[in-house]
Amino acid sequence: MATRRRRFDKQFKLDALKMVSESDRSLASVARDLGLHPNVLYRWRDEFEADSDNAFPGKGKLKPEDEELRKLRREVETLKEERDILKKALAVFSRRG
Description:
The structure is a single chain. This protein folds into two domains: 7-61, Arc Repressor Mutant, subunit A (Orthogonal Bundle), CATH 1.10.10; 62-97. Helices cover 69% and strands 0% of the residues. The chain is built from four helices and no strands. It has helices at 10-22, 27-34, 38-50, 64-96. Helix 2 crosses helix 3 (38-50). The longest helix is centred in the C-terminal third of the chain and has 33 residues, at 64-96. The chain is elongated and about 80 Å long. The mean pLDDT is 87.
């Protein structure tokens, strides 16, 4: 029987990191109390330290700059398709005349 992957919301992650920073206990001790592997807390800490404002965006959500990049890439693909359609139309109309 396979175990299901546990998911934690942003507030839980922030509270766990707060427990580590505000107590004199080790990260491994806090992780054990929360039923987590210490590497999970290390990863959360590293992600939070890298970008505290946009850390833990949530399920299916992207950081603002990643969302903007995805939007721009989608727009480029649309523009390429439109350009290709116009090139084909020009070729068709050029042959008739």
